[in-house]
Amino acid sequence: QVQLVESGGGLVQPGGSLRLSCAASGFTFSSFDMSWVRRAPGKGLEWVSDINNGGGSTTYADSVKGRFTISRDNAKNTLYLRMNDLLPEDTAVYYCAKGPRDSYDDWGQGTQVTVSS
Question: What is residue 32's predicted lDDT score, i.e. its pLDDT?
Answer without folding.
Answer: 97
